[in-house]
Target: Mitochondrial ribosomal protein subunit L20-domain-containing protein
Amino acid sequence: MSTCAAAPKRSFLRLPFLLPSWSESSPLVLRRNQSSYRRTKARLRVKPDASFGPSQAQLHEHIIYNPPSSAPSVYQTPTKFLPPDDIRRTLRAASLAGEPKETDLPPVFKETPEKKYHLTPADIEEIRKLRVSDPMTWSRWKLARRFDCSPLFVAMVCEASPQKKEIQKQVLQAVQSRWGAKRRIAREDRELRKEAWGRDE
Model:
């Protein structure tokens, strides 16, 4: 019959986490050598080149072109600084040949739509009747699409009924009831600024 020998228990005072750390007994001090400081300072010391300053041969102002020490690129070297017989001039001219000309580009501003004066007094009267009879269905945008005019013209010839204005007021009050303190203060400040605009302040 095999018997297992029990390991002797260690004393509580000899546990490793109770012993002082080696870092406390011998603190590690990181010091920067003076030689590394000199090497870093020497690398940052750049010798000034003659092209950095103004040229003594030309007294008037001119462009100083000092490209970085890297492989030249057609898209980085300006054409002004290329020799007349440089092949890169031909390559650049060939690459620009496929670009659209100014005549092929769309206009900068949109064309102003031509104004129409096709509505008769009978049409205007019908717009007013539809607006008063059912303001919820016949909004300004729907009337503008039906009579082929702008919503601004519909607002000029007729206005919403008092019932529609009351409904819009209730909807606005419901939306404002969900506002927080910050939004309410911001809207009040906006109204004060608008009043100041009228007083030219």
Q: What stands out?
A: The mean pLDDT is 76. The first helix runs from residue 22 to 25. The CA atoms of residues 113 and 150 lie 11 Å apart.
